[in-house]
Amino acid sequence: MLILGIDTSGRQGSVALLQAPDEQGGPLHTVELAPLAGGQYSELLVPAIAALLERHGLQKRALSLLAVASGPGSFTGLRVAIATVKGLAEAFAIPVVPVSVLEAILLASPAQGRAIAAIDAQRGEVFFAEHVTVNPAANLREAIAAFDAFAAMLAAGSPPPTVLTPDEVLAARLRESAFNESAFDVALVARPTAEDIAHIAYGKFLDGVRADIATLDANYLRRSDAEIFSAPKPGTLPEPR
């Protein structure tokens, strides 16, 4: 069973090829993890996938599962990735499992107790998420907020959370925030790669998760630039999804 992982959600992305002995839960083996330069996903993604498969003597039809980082993150990067997996899925009847970048951060962390994943959304905003049930595979609460609103929410939280972020600047700002008087901890973690996305997607696949290709879309959380600049920006914190 061959799994193609794709992550174009951030400034740097990656594609990965992994192999499992079967579809019954056998251990995954990473065949290759290849980096992708950010800002050029629309030009690089499809050729990178073709080159990855060619290096290992494989055809696209040999793939058994497509794992894609569904966001939040770069609007263009996510759109390119989703369009690519839709094309492969429809052409070769390959199942797709999308994975939230924020969920991947939470699942990879050894943090005990309440944990919140956060990444820099630019424009003074933060993407964040936390699990709201004991079951980490369900009920992921995701939202976007202005930095001060996010820090205030953390300070008011009970019990105090641990914030997990791969962004050094965001981590430093949170530690220095006027709202943080030992109210919450901040842990700098590695940003998920296409390899991590593939591992999580494989687990979901074994649990019966499959995306509906007709309705599959990225989790942008924020509207596109065209929408943002054509209307006044809301002054209130949006309801979490």
Proportion of β residues?
Answer: 25-35%
Q: Describe the global form.
A: elongated
The CATH topology of the largest domain corresponds to Nucleotidyltransferase, domain 5
SSE series: EEEHEHEHEEEHEHEHH
Q: What's the domain count? A: 2
Give me the number of helical elements.
7
Give the helix level as a range of percent. Answer: 25-40%
Low-confidence stretches: 225-236
CATH class of the largest domain: Alpha Beta
| Spatial ordering of strands, largest sheet | 3-2-1-4-5
Radius of gyration over all CA atoms, rounded: 18 Å
Q: State the major sheet.
A: 5 strands, mixed
Write down the overall mean pLDDT: 89
CATH hierarchy: architecture of the largest domain: 2-Layer Sandwich
How far is the N terminus from the C terminus? Answer: 33 Å
Name the CATH homologous superfamily of the largest domain: ATPase, nucleotide binding domain
Helices and strands, with pairings:
Elements: E1 2-7, E2 12-19, E3 29-37, H1 41-55, E4 65-71, H2 75-92, E5 96-100, H3 101-108, E6 115-122, E7 125-131, E8 140-146, H4 147-156, E9 162-165, H5 168-176, E10 185-188, H6 194-206, H7 225-230
Parallel strand pairs: 1-4, 4-5, 6-9, 9-10
Antiparallel strand pairs: 1-2, 2-3, 6-7, 7-8
